[in-house]
Specification:
By secondary structure, the chain is mainly β. The protein has five helices and 14 strands. It has a nine-stranded mixed barrel with strand order 1-2-4-6-7-9-10-13-14. The N terminus is likely disordered.
């Protein structure tokens, strides 16, 4: 699918897309502060301001996107309780900015954006129960070597991404009716810049365009999002896992800041999918949540983990 087709599809927002800001990554001034840094001083904590969306694709299509060794390891019975057909699969797309990352209540890492597809409900250990979440590719800013090296340690293939906006989880379209987030991949053989402040020549690698869902009942329950964001994460180095605990019950995810159901369009380009494709009417949740991360754990030692924990019971 060609970029021109995508632009035609999203004609009301073309002006916003053409005026993309490809400035270097910057700290998020609109994000809320880390609410759990003093509660867990001996752990890495922070916030994830994200839109997490779910593309319901045929199970066979999802299997074709996974490495062959994981293609037949999807635990369909683990997600049918969320009213998802076993013939479909919930491919997850996350557009994120990590903010206020601390250890011993001291800042340890500057804010950074990321964009990726993830595959939850993977039976990594072959026990028929434990649910893990696989990531193959992730877009990260080239200006953050700590985030890059950390991701590569799990076997993620890190792609150099330039994000619009560079300092927030989304920005409103000019008509104010939708929120947009885009990532541009730098061309490896580029030698010139697209503008005085932008990266070398780049292509649109992924983009989301969401509006607030007005109906009261989201098509996929919030318990699903709580569950998948608390599944153990792994990459192509399937011996080492990342236990990312997402809290959905702190001051930044409740009250005035409670999660919002959204719906919209998602564009994905290779290598996230084989061919550029626009998925429409995709449901999702926009939320700012606190996290606690325990890195480089032995995956075998996490047997029995089902994606539940404090604040995320799903």
């Amino acid at each position: 699918m060609h970029t021109a087709w995508f632009i035609t599809l999203l004609l009301p927002y073309v002006a916003d897309l053409c005026s993309a800001d490809l400035s270097p990554q910057a700290n998020c001034t609109s994000c809320l502060p880390n609410p759990i840094a003093t509660t867990y001083p001996n752990n890495v904590t922070g916030t994830i301001n994200a839109t997490t969306s779910v593309i319901l694709v045929p199970l066979s299509y999802a299997q074709s996107l996974l490495p062959s060794r994981f293609a037949n390891s999807i635990l369909t019975n683990a997600y049918t309780r969320f009213n998802i057909s076993p013939t479909l699969y919930p491919l997850v797309v996350e557009s994120v900015i990590d903010h206020d990352i601390r250890f011993n209540n001291f800042p340890v890492l500057s804010d950074f954006s990321s964009f990726r597809t993830t595959f939850p409900f993977i039976d990594l250990l072959g026990d028929g129960y434990s649910t893990f979440r696989y990531t193959g590719f992730i877009y990260l800013p080239p200006s953050n070597p700590i985030a890059i090296n950390g991701s590569q340690g799990y076997g993620y293939t890190v792609l150099s991404g330039f994000f619009d906006p560079p300092d927030a989880p989304y920005k409103f379209t000019r008509n104010g009716r939708a929120r947009r987030f885009s990532v541009f991949e730098q061309s490896s053989n580029s030698t010139h810049s697209t503008s005085h402040h932008g990266p070398p020549a780049s292509r649109l690698a992924g983009s989301t365009l969401f509006r607030t869902k007005t109906s009261s009942q989201p098509p996929i329950p919030l318990s699903f999002y709580r569950n998948i964001t608390n599944q153990i994460m792994f990459g192509n180095n399937s011996q080492v896992c990342d236990r990312m605990i997402s809290f959905w019950n702190t001051s930044i995810t409740t009250g005035a800041y409670e999660p919002q159901a959204v719906v919209g369009d998602v564009l994905l380009s290779p290598p996230l999918v084989p061919e550029r494709k626009v998925f429409r009417n995709v449901p999702g949740v926009k939320a700012d949540r606190a996290f606690l991360e325990v890195n480089y754990l032995d995956c075998e030692g996490l047997k029995g983990y089902g994606g539940t924990g404090s604040g995320d019971s799903g």
